Amino acid sequence: MNWLTPPSTGQHYLKQRRSPSVSLLTQTELQTSLFTLHNKTMATAGKVIKCHAAVAWKPNAPLVIEEIEVAPPQKHEIRIKVIATGVCHTDLYHLFEGKHEEGFPAVLGHEGAGIVESVGPGVTDFKPGDTVIPLFISQCGECRFCKHPKSNMCERSWTTLSTGIMAEKDSRFTCRGKVIFQFMGTSTFSEYTVLNQISVAKICDDARLDRVCLLGCGVATGYGAAINTAQVTRGSVCAVFGLGGVGLAAVMGCRNAGASRIIGVDINEDKFGKARALGATDCVNPKKHSKPISEVLSEMTNGGVDFSLECVGNVAVMRSALESCVRGWGVSVMVGWTDLDDFSARPIQLIAGKTWKGSLFGGFKGKDAVPKLVLDYKSGRINLDEFVTHTMPLDKVNDSIELMKTGKCIRTVLNVSPK
Ligand SMILES: NC(=O)c1ccc[n+]([C@@H]2O[C@H](COP(=O)([O-])OP(=O)(O)OC[C@H]3O[C@@H](n4cnc5c(N)ncnc54)[C@H](O)[C@@H]3O)[C@@H](O)[C@H]2O)c1
Ligand SMILES: [Zn+2]
Ligand SMILES: [Zn+2]
């Protein structure tokens, strides 16, 4: 079943769904590297590429570095050499929490940046050597949703087309004679990947790929949830639940929107230092209080915050975030990912004038917005360096997953392909 299309009865629907580090390159180094890639490209275009990828053969098991075959791009598709990728909690969700057994084997990873190796017939927007960020939400530019200013839910994305496998069914990957799914349509834990041109953003050639890869998911998601979805206002009081990569980006969004007070909420106090560095004015650990966190926040803010953002992926926390908002005008945004449980709240919460909404990829239309976010990083308007706590080669991917599972990182960036 398509998880975004409501079935005939909501009840039925909800029950069912129970290496070497990449450093900043000089312009000359970058041009030499693009020239080398261009020559290599000529050699590989139109052929199957054998390369390394981290394959998730089944849920709850370590990823295995395998040699996979990546088919040439078909009509309107692009084959990309992935240079760097972040590891996001949604990768862990699919592997450990989501219970989508039919979504395996897959190559995970959806927060990447790379360089176009070759293009298929009919590709007009890209050429070999272009610097790009794969998008897990496409922007075809033609559908009802792309044309509507209020949504980024392009109807040609895997999110609307696929079933509950969290992947594009039509994959260009094989390994040991089996088709391997492209998780979230992207699969950046692979040296090469293939995407339709509607799911790729072209960015400036001198961007630092081991930083801007975070704009492929986590940072764009949290930042956009505050700026686009909550529409945080100047002077407002905000609370962000969950201070991982997504939550910290939401803190940064509240800061850039001019919030006067930003309260970070997390059960892991190790996250508080980064939260303060990115704009949090207060940090609260719900475990240190005997009262519900919504009451604690209500007392701290004379009746509740103007905006709250849930960046954990837990329905109980979503409820707390809503209850922490002020009645009358409070807005609460669900950003954390889960499709396992129903959420609930007392109707009076909404009757009393609060708004409860959700946000996917920060509400950004990726092809238009991601190149601008890259420029915002280059101008210093948004931070990315602060998010990267670890860097390692692709073959250490299981270590990066362990770091996130145990709350010891914000973002690990994997250097997927050596230059
Ligand atoms: N909506 C989207 O488009 C989108 C995109 C990317 C990620 N996500 C989701 O956003 C969530 C966060 O992703 P991330 O990569 O930042 O994950 P993360 O694991 O790095 O961060 C989650 C944080 O939540 C904290 N936390 C856990 N339980 C908590 C609780 N009860 N109260 C307060 N804090 C708690 C953890 O200590 C951690 O710091 C995940 O659910 C992920 O799947 C959604
Ligand atoms: Zn993600
Ligand atoms: Zn569209």
UniProtKB/TrEMBL annotation:
Going by the UniProt record, its keywords in alphabetical order are: Metal-binding, NAD, Oxidoreductase, Zinc
The record's listing under Gene3D superfamilies reads: Medium-chain alcohol dehydrogenases, catalytic domain, NAD(P)-binding Rossmann-like Domain
Q: List the Pfam families hit by this protein, alphabetically.
A: ADH_N (PF08240), ADH_zinc_N (PF00107)
Where the record annotates domain Enoyl reductase (ER), the positions are: 58-414
Q: Which SUPFAM superfamilies match?
A: GroES-like, NAD(P)-binding Rossmann-fold domains
Q: Which GO terms describe its molecular function?
A: alcohol dehydrogenase (NAD+) activity; S-(hydroxymethyl)glutathione dehydrogenase [NAD(P)+] activity; zinc ion binding
Tell whether Methyltransferase is among the UniProt keywords: no
Q: Which co-factor is required?
A: Zn(2+)
Q: Which InterPro entries match?
A: ADH-like_C (IPR013149), ADH-like_N (IPR013154), ADH_Zn_CS (IPR002328), ER (IPR020843), GroES-like_sf (IPR011032), NAD(P)-bd_dom_sf (IPR036291)
Per the database entry, which stretches of residues form a coiled coil?
Answer: none
Gene Ontology cellular-component terms for this entry are: cytosol
Q: Which SMART domains does its entry note?
A: PKS_ER (SM00829)
Superkingdom of the source species:
Eukaryota
Which terms does the UniProt entry file under GO BP? Answer: formaldehyde catabolic process
Family statement: Belongs to the zinc-containing alcohol dehydrogenase family.
Q: What is this protein called?
A: Alcohol dehydrogenase 1-like
The source organism is Clupea harengus
Starting at the broadest rank, the lineage of the source organism is:
Eukaryota, Metazoa, Chordata, Craniata, Vertebrata
